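Now for a typical sample entry:
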Amino acid sequence: MLKKELRAKYKALRNTLTEKDIEERSLAIANNVLKLPIWNKTYFHIFLPIAEQKEVNTEFILHLLSGKDKEIVVSKSDFTTRNMTHFLLTDNTKIKKNEYNIPEPVNGLEVPADKMEVVFVPLLAFDKTGNRVGYGKGFYDKFLSGCKPETIKIGLSFFEAENLITDVYENDVKLDYCVTPNGVSESL
């Protein structure tokens, strides 16, 4: 399927989810994250969910990371340049929603992209070969291309993989894993 068709399909599917569905599926995703071979890493980048878009609630994963004493990094997006700036999440970090309802750090200690060892990636859909469909602005592809090649890229999805996304571009960065409420998919 084409990215445009997948965006429409999965936005519609997400809109059918209740708050209870989102919480239960997000908890199941967090439990499946525990099965990943990532726990020897230190720097973890995670997105803070846009509740209005019914994204995966990453609070459960944040608790896991915090409980394992990991360095947690969150981003701030610049919609003019389509760049993301990454900040260490600490007890003193102030989070504020931007004009697109994205929760972001106001300021803090900046962390370069090449320091990230694991990145949790938001998405609308993904396929069995690790391609993903986001909102189409290219923020994550740009960010991930600045990470080290060995950085582990993990998508989080309420839904299972599509067979194939047909309009993949050369700048699209593939996922290594995608975690759903039903388990972990490893990219081929």
The radius of gyration is 15 Å.
